[in-house]
Amino acid sequence: MIELLHALILGIVEGFTEFLPISSTGHLIVAQDFLGFKDVNDLFTVVIQLGAIAAVMWYYRQDLWSRTIGLFKRETAAIRFWTVIAVGCIPAALFGLFLDKHMNSITVPAVVATTLIIGGIIMWLVDRKPVHKHTDPVELGDITTKQAALIGLGQAVAIIPGVSRSGATIVSGLMTGLNRPTATAFSFYLAVPIMIAATGYKMLKYRADIAHLPGGLPALGVGVFASFIVALLAISWLLKFIAHNNFKMFAYYRIAAGLVILAMLGAHWL
């Protein structure tokens, strides 16, 4: 029973933090360590992302369906959209395969704390840059392959725990000239294929380890469901928030969270 409760808590953490620029993986690593939840080859951490993926697909279901149908109909706008999505995913796919063997050595609270602080400082600096509305693309269809490639590099770096996939892609988008709403929406769309690929890869490679997870398959189900519900609420809130606010609040939070984790490590609480 305690394993299911832990899975519920971790699913809520995943859903709340996945699309906020504060690192879901980083928070899950710290939460698992604090709860004494023993993940196996990061399987639970990755698989419960299915809930967050489903939340994005449900939130944008009409647009995704329209663009997918448009692709089969060979519509220019749809082909262009899926091309920039593919370009944006390539760096993370390559870097992820390279880093997979070394993930266990860097999936630790000390790395999370460091990257949270560094990422927070970078986010604060980038968000200070004035936004020139007359030059910023306001539609996802306006994003170029060059911009997508640069944003994709940000997503690749985010494989390191604590960096934050959404944070890295949003900041990269701002640096390439996108406005906040467009950068955030593109970050959400970019998450779908790369997270599906990462989850599928982990499940296929470590499928035999599912039975060895605390709580087994039922715990995974609880975590995925909790992640879906909470992520759906988080997406809706974030899109409304960034329409009228900047990301400095998240930058301050990242820095503070990193310092708290370092303090907890110093006190041997983690």
Provide a concise account of the structure shown.
This protein has 270 residues and is mostly helical.
Structural class: mainly alpha
Helical segment tally?
13
Strand percent estimate: under 5%
The low-confidence parts are 132-137
Name the helicity range: over 70%
What labels would you give this structure?
mainly alpha, 270 residues, 13 helices, globular
Report on this structure.
The protein is mostly helical and 270 residues long. The protein has one domain (2-266). Helices cover 74% and strands 0% of the residues. The relative contact order is 0.21. The model is unreliable at 132-137 (pLDDT under 50).
Secondary structure layout plus pairing:
Blueprint: H1 2-17, H2 24-35, H3 43-47, H4 49-59, H5 61-72, H6 76-99, H7 103-106, H8 109-127, H9 145-157, H10 165-175, H11 180-205, H12 216-242, H13 248-266
Helix pairs in contact: 1-2, 1-12, 2-8, 4-11, 4-12, 5-6, 6-9, 6-11, 8-10, 8-13, 9-10, 10-11
